[in-house]
Design a protein that fits this description.
The chain is mainly β and 269 residues long. The protein has three helices and 18 strands. The protein folds into two domains: 77 residues, Immunoglobulin-like; 154 residues, Lipocalin. An eight-stranded antiparallel barrel has the order 9-12-13-14-15-16-17-18. Strands 3, 4, 6, 7 and 8 form a five-stranded antiparallel β-sheet that branches. β12 and β13 form a beta hairpin. The N terminus is likely disordered.
């Protein structure tokens, strides 16, 4: 009988405990109006290519969208290395989700010297205020100047490599003209493909220094586009791997449609 009474008391105690701990309703507060958002976007006094982002909205988590990516820092500094007009977006979290302020346009007028002092930029372009011209390493006789041939083959991540030399099925022999990269006012790119003029043009070039890749806008790097390897590559512009880049030698790796890596060889004037 005592055990039964103790059990009843214990159950009643649990009921009392849980009934006294019912959850309270959470109040997130009113949604913010974008007019209440406060922030600044200003160039650094030390480097005009460094842009300082500051969130001044009280008790709010910021959300920045910039050319450098996204950030949730209250104060952040981003680097924009090349001239142009760039959009910065600022938002904060509120009950209704993210509330965005009006976008800010940042005008950059200079090339960031620190960025282009990297050896990849210097070797590709000659350096700030300079230009450099490159040739595909094959001539009208099918001979190469610096490499064993214009193209070599590799597995993914260079798991294997084969230097095929020159053959008509590799690339057509001929004078492919020139491609020029410069840092005169902007990171410029010009391709004058004498073998395949439709691939020529002018535009811009970008280098991802961490990934060691090259991207061109407006034209393609020198390559074949008929019966050799070139037509079997879908991407000739974006994130091309830089295998080798010295003062006078350049090797760019593209991926053939079947997954084979193709290493195109160039030399500078």
């Amino acid at each position: 009988m005592k055990k039964l009474i103790h059990s009843i008391i214990a159950v009643c105690g649990l009921i009392t405990m849980f009934s006294g701990c019912s959850p309270e309703k959470m109040e997130l507060g009113p949604a913010l109006d974008k007019g209440a958002l406060k922030f600044t976007v200003t160039p650094s006094a030390k480097n005009p290519n460094d842009i300082v982002l500051k969130s001044l909205t009280p008790n709010a988590t910021p959300y920045w969208v910039s050319p450098s990516g996204n950030s949730i820092k209250l104060t952040d500094t981003i680097n924009i290395p090349f001239p142009g007009d760039y959009t910065i977006k600022y938002a904060v979290e509120s009950r209704g989700g993210l509330v965005y302020a009006d976008s800010v346009i940042v005008k950059i007028t200079t090339i960031d010297e620190k960025t282009v002092s990297d050896p990849l930029w210097v070797n590709l372009t000659g350096g700030l205020g300079k230009s450099k011209t490159w040739h595909l390493d094959v001539d009208a006789d099918g001979k190469s100047k610096y490499f064993n041939g214009p193209v070599s083959f590799a597995g993914a991540n260079y798991s294997w490599q084969w230097d095929a030399g020159w053959a008509d099925w590799v690339v057509e022999k001929g004078d492919y003209g020139t491609m020029t990269f410069d840092l005169i006012g902007n990171p410029n790119f010009k391709s004058n493909n004498l073998m395949f003029p439709a691939l020529s043009g002018t535009g811009k070039v970008a280098i991802d220094l961490k990934a060691k890749t090259l991207t061109t806008i407006g034209a393609e790097v020198l390559h074949d586009n008929s019966k050799g390897q070139g037509p079997q590559v879908a991407n000739w512009k974006k994130d091309i791997r830089i295998k080798t880049l010295t003062d006078n030698k350049l090797q760019l790796t593209v991926v053939r449609n079947d997954g084979t890596w193709l290493i195109y060889n160039y030399y500078s004037e």
